[in-house]
Design goal:
heterodimer, A: 508 residues, Rossmann fold, seven-stranded mixed sheet, 23 strands, B: mainly alpha, 70% helix, 1% strand, AAA+_ATPase (chain A), ABC_carbohydrate_import_ATPase (chain A), ATP-binding (chain A), nucleotide-binding (chain A), ABC transporter ATP-binding protein (chain A)
């Protein structure tokens, strides 16, 4: 059978890095083919060349057996290639229908288009209101719009760049049903992800890239996720080592009856939150996004004022302390948003290291910046946390999401805080790097620091935490020792149901 | 001066005259901003249009050539702006301000020989029969062609933005240049065209000033109208129909202050001269307190790096 798409020896270099080095890829009609690799392995670059957004430096692209030079996305679309982007290519202020019309290559009558759209969305069970503006849609619905936009062009190859990273489990299930149906109709799908479980259930074959190089193509149904992860990273991933702790040191932070009204129109007010963390303890807060995590983080980091007694750090009432003073008494903080909150996007890594680390790492010399020390610090973070960058003078926003996350987490942990508050510490980070971040959080706790981790990822919380609680609609559940509660019970708590089983170790 | 129908008709006619340059320039800027480019050089493009149009008419005697020359002058200025901000990715705000200062200086230099020379003005297009109607004839059917054109352009701009595919693409580029680029639209080329169109309309507005509104050339004769037009676009929340409303409102304030002075109302004339600018500031404040941020094209003023 002639492959639908075949790449031979594709090479693409950017200043300072070889993004793709002689990559081969073959996709058959009706095949769901996974493209696997760590952050910065060259997956996105490769698909951009398939879609005509970039041209390879050398190598050949064959479409249904014929060599083509993919000049631009328009040409790719005319051949039958559709792409659903990781960061959606939608226009917020425009309606669903207008967005789809913009994505079509020929002028279309909006009324006819609307009719087609309604038909095809009913056919595939992808409900959408064509007249709604994009900014009123949920993330899952937005993705539906992108998929519908591709389907209207009757694609022969659909490229999906990390489609599930923003979806809820239910939305993921629906998406897979759609993708499997498309494949059964003969559409080839190139599926980019680093979620190995998904690839195992969905894909027929998988190509692994590492450091821009083609490693191998394998059958994911015949491999264990661990084996695939190992090939992806190139070395065995050691799951974080954790020693069971029985005794903890003195109390580092105590939050009592913390109630905060949200300043966001659709936010969650915090209602009587209480918890405490002791030296050497890692407390996890599980919960579905949008249940008050943002508000809790703002209160803990000092971005919102709270009653002075509601937060006590190291025995000192701190509810009204601003962020920098909280840092002075040993707190470090990894925020949810890495761009604009965790880092200044347009500033260099050097400056970003300085901004949060100048107190703990003493980067100032009589009020002046000690550039040498600051560079050493930034370089140290990049080396230790394997941050791929083209020099510490490159802007924070030029790093890929996962690499920037590693930098931010590294920057905070390396300050040796007595209290670390980390939101989604491994969000968008690949398996190898995630394991390294987990290990360094555990190591930090070994050195008697208290750690609070907020995450939606239960695997993560169960891998590193000593105790766990759940936030639901602005309320925090009781705290349970990690060994005394199961995932199912946590899952129930995340849905707002208190399971009757375990006894909480510390009643809040 | 009594307020008989004749005086009222005269006042309305002058209001229309004062509103037209604002309307033309603001409609042009609206298109540029919808494509995501903030061009603060309106004033500079307008005054260059005014001086070049006047010089051309004086030397050739052709009003048509004068109007065309004014449009080209505005486009020439816009081309400088587009090259700097779109091709070289300079800061749009700073470049726009520089363009205004440059235009004011250059126009004064070019127009030195022409100060104080009079011109008969654009011919009025008296629509047969209709223009002889009492009152309405004068108010509605006895204007020069640029006034009819400006009103037509309100409709044309609305139709273009909301009913045509090209308008949709233009809005898409202004909304998210990255998304438009990833779909495969030539962001820079589209913005070039939008900026050039904005320049053409500003140049036309300038030509209207020096050929029709007050047919002569004087230094700095735009007198801040470019800035008002700029504020109008925000005031109108990027909607052509509201640009029309705003232009006539601001035109009205300008004229009423003149008549107020004429009628000897005991308020200092400086106060009236200040009114349009005060209104602009108040409108800007009121609008910025609402969620107008969501109405503005999301990529407005942001440079586009077509690297990724």
């Amino acid at each position: 059978m002639t492959p639908r798409l075949q790449l031979k020896q594709i090479t693409k270099a950017f200043p300072g890095c070889l993004a793709n080095d002689r990559v081969d890829l073959k996709i058959q009609p009706g095949e769901i083919h996974a493209l696997l690799g760590e952050n910065g392995a060259g997956k996105s670059t490769l698909v951009k060349m398939i879609y005509g957004l970039m041209q390879p430096d050398s190598g050949q692209i064959f479409w249904q057996g014929e060599e083509v030079i993919m000049q631009n996305p328009k040409m790719a679309r005319s051949l039958g290639i559709g792409m659903v982007f990781q960061h959606f290519s939608l226009f917020e202020a425009m309606t669903v229908l207008e967005n789809i019309a913009v994505g079509m290559d020929q002028a279309v009558d909006l009324k006819t288009l609307e009719k087609q759209l309604v038909e095809i969305s009913a056919d595939y069970g992808l409900q959408i209101d064509p007249r709604k503006a994009i900014h009123d849609l949920s993330v899952g619905e937005r993705q539906r719009v992108e998929i519908l936009r591709c389907l209207l062009q009757q694609p022969k190859l659909l490229i999906m760049d990390e489609p599930t990273s923003v979806l809820t489990p239910q939305e993921v299930e629906k998406l897979f049903v759609t993708l499997k149906r498309l494949a059964s109709e003969g559409v080839s799908i190139l599926y980019i992800s680093h979620k190995l479980d998904e690839i195992k259930t969905l894909c027929h074959s998988a190509t692994i890239l590492r450091g821009g190089r083609f490693i191998e193509t394998l059958d994911p149904t015949q491999e264990t996720p661990a084996a695939m992860a190992q090939r992806m990273v190139g070395e065995k991933i050691t799951p974080p080592k954790r020693t069971e702790k029985t005794a903890y040191g003195k109390e580092i932070i105590r939050v009592q009856n913390l109630s905060v009204e949200s300043d966001q129109p659709f936010g969650n007010d915090l209602k009587e939150i209480s918890f405490q963390i002791r030296e050497g303890e890692i407390l996890g807060v599980a919960g579905i996004a949008g249940n008050g995590q943002t508000e809790l983080l703002e209160a803990l980091s000092g971005e919102v004022d709270t009653p002075i007694d509601s937060i006590v750090i190291q025995g000192r009432p701190s509810g009204n302390l601003p962020s920098n003073q909280r840092r002075m008494i040993g707190m470090a903080y990894v925020p949810e948003e890495r761009l604009g909150h965790g880092s200044v996007p347009d500033e260099s890594l050097h400056s970003n290291a300085l901004l949060s680390g100048y107190q703990a790492k003493k980067l100032l010399n009589r009020g002046f910046i000690d550039h040498k020390k600051c560079s050493d610090y930034a370089n140290h973070i990049c080396d230790k946390y394997k941050v791929k960058q083209s020099g510490i003078n490159s802007a924070a926003k030029s790093l890929s999401g996962g690499n920037l996350q590693k930098f931010i987490v590294g920057r905070e942990i390396e300050q040796g805080p007595s209290l670390l508050i980390a939101a989604q510490p491994t969000w968008g980070v690949d398996a190898g790097a995630a394991a390294a971040i987990h290990q360094s959080i555990i190591d930090l706790a070994q050195k008697n620091s208290a750690v609070l981790v907020l995450s939606q990822d239960l695997d993560e919380l169960f891998a590193i935490c000593d105790a766990i609680c759940v936030i639901y609609e602005g309320r925090l559940s009781a705290t349970y020792p990690i060994s005394a509660i199961s995932r199912e019970e946590i899952g129930l708590l995340m849905g707002g149901i208190t399971p009757p089983l375990s006894t909480p170790a510390q009643t809040a | 001066m009594a307020l008989n129908p004749e005086v009222i008709a005269l006042i309305i006619v002058t209001i229309i005259g004062a509103a037209t340059p604002l309307l033309l320039a603001a409609l042009g800027e609206l298109i540029a901003e919808k494509s995501g480019v903030l061009n603060l050089g309106l004033e500079g493009m307008m005054i260059m249009g005014a001086v070049i149009a006047f010089m051309t008419v004086h030397n050739t005697g052709s009003a048509t050539l004068g109007i065309v020359a004014g449009i080209l002058a505005g486009m020439g200025m816009a081309l400088i702006f587009a090259f700097l901000t779109l091709s070289l990715q300079s800061n749009q705000v700073a470049t726009g301000l520089a363009l205004t200062i440059f235009g004011l200086g250059l126009s004064a230099l070019l127009g030195r020989e022409y100060v104080g020379i009079a011109y008969s003005g654009l011919p009025k297009l008296d629509l047969p029969v209709l223009s002889e109607l009492p009152f309405f004839g004068k108010v509605l059917f006895s204007h020069d062609i640029l006034i009819y054109f400006s009103l037509f352009m309100v409709f044309a701009t609305f139709y273009f933005l909301n009913r045509t595919r090209s308008g949709l693409i233009l809005r898409a580029v202004g909304e998210s240049h990255d998304a438009a680029h990833s779909i495969g639209y030539p962001v820079i080329a589209i913005r070039y065209m939008a900026v050039l169109y904005g320049g053409a309309m500003s140049g036309l507005a300038g030509a209207y000033l020096s050929l029709s509104y007050s047919p002569m050339w004087a230094d700095n004769m735009t007198a801040g109208r470019g800035w008002i037009a700029l504020a109008l676009v925000v005031f109108a929340m990027w909607m052509p129909s509201r640009v029309l409303l705003g232009a006539y409102m601001f035109g009205g304030i300008t004229i009423l202050q003149l008549h107020g002075q004429g009628m000897g109302i005991a308020i200092p004339s400086e106060f009236f001269s200040m009114l349009p600018y005060l209104a602009t500031i108040i409108v800007l404040v009121i609008i910025s307190r609402q969620s107008s941020a969501s109405l503005a094209p999301a990529s407005l003023g942001k440079p586009f790096h077509p690297t990724h």
